[in-house]
Amino acid sequence: MSIEIKIRKNEPIDRALRRMKKKLERESIIKDVRAKRYFEKPCEKRRRKNKVAAFTAMLRARYAN
Questions:
Q1: Among candidates 20, 2, 4, which has minimal Cα distance to 12?
Q2: Mean pLDDT in order along the chain per 10 residues (65 residues)
Q3: In whole angstroms, how large is the CA radius of gyration of the chain?
Q4: What angle do CA 8, 32, 36 make, to 5 degrees?
Q5: How crowded is the C-beta side of 53, counted as CA atoms within 13 Å?
Q6: Which residues make Cβ contacts (< 8 Å) with residue 15, sequence separation at least 6?
Q7: Phi/psi of residue 36, each to 5°?
Q8: Where are the domains of the chain?
Q9: For residues 16 and 5, is the Cβ–Cβ distance under 8 A?
Q10: What integer pLDDT is reported at residue 2 of this predicted model?
């Protein structure tokens, strides 16, 4: 799986880097790499997922109006 960013004519490198970062973020590649950097025990994964689900539920309940 490779990401290609073609630099347009007269495009600054900064803008091309920004496009590449956005593309990586959209495809959640950076997120996966950071998650797999260290081993995470299954119980820690469950705990983290439950924490995210509880936070999301709390936000939905707060802004349900």
A1: 20
A2: 85 93 90 90 95 96 88
A3: 18
A4: 135
A5: 6
A6: none
A7: -95, 5
A8: 13-62
A9: yes
A10: 78
